Amino acid sequence: MKKLFFLLIAISAIALSCSKEKKPEVDMPNKGEITITTDESFQSVTEALVDRYMALYPNTKINIIVKKEDLGFLDLLEKKTRVIVMSRELSDKEKKAFDQKVDLPWLPAKFAADAVLFVVPKDSPLESISMEDIYKELQSDDKKIIFDGTNSSNLNFVAQTFQKNPSELKFSIINGNENVAEQLKNHPGKIGVISYNTISRPFGKEAEKLRNELKVLKVIKNNKAFEVSNDNLKNMSYPFTRVLYFLTNEPYYGLGNGLIRFSCQQLGQIVVEKEGLQPYHIFNREVQMR
């Protein structure tokens, strides 16, 4: 009887102890720590937005993992990351997987217009390349076009533009946007493919260095040449303009959704503009004269 009595006391003590254990603290827009994932092509603008957000909210910590776009999406489905940055359209199969695994509406939060660039060394005689020539080169065994890797956002977007799977295209690889830009001079006759965000930051030392070494080819479509400019990104007339957007698996208004909301509102859009990209949400600036 005494043994039963002491056993009941022990069970009650354990139950009381468990009830007093603190539940994991849920992050909030102004407090907590999360991990987000971005492709290297958008790393610069992602870091700029995160740095500004954490400066506004010192009790937040947002860790950035740089990973190929396709792999980042898989991590989002498996809830290994809270937010990802994407540029290409998801397939119907991917949207279905998102609906099943994340159990949230597929709602992309668009925040910037970026672009895929075709670049050559500064001393190259090339000035432009047509859509037809790009497609022709991507079918050639010469593999003149160099991408920054398989599963990369640049390759995915170009393949999607031509309504092809990346596996159907022929190309060379140098891992990393900056590596493509820096090593292009060692591969005469080749054309590199990089993100605009790699060289768009107006006062970034590395971006400025790469701009001085590279020539961005105009892209010819329907007998008209388009260069990368804010106006051409704004109206999406440059043929390889792409819209960057966030996806999250966060089911409440926490730190992930806080960052997304900030990035899509005026302060975040100013950060995007300072990165040299075209803000997706354009805010009118009104000056009152007295």
UniProtKB/TrEMBL annotation:
<dbReference type="Pfam" id="PF12849">
    <property type="entry name" value="PBP_like_2"/>
</dbReference>
<dbReference type="InterPro" id="IPR024370">
    <property type="entry name" value="PBP_domain"/>
</dbReference>
<protein>
    <submittedName>
        <fullName>Phosphate transport system substrate-binding protein</fullName>
    </submittedName>
</protein>
<keyword id="KW-0732">Signal</keyword>
<dbReference type="InterPro" id="IPR050811">
    <property type="entry name" value="Phosphate_ABC_transporter"/>
</dbReference>
<feature type="domain" description="PBP">
    <location>
        <begin position="29"/>
        <end position="263"/>
    </location>
</feature>
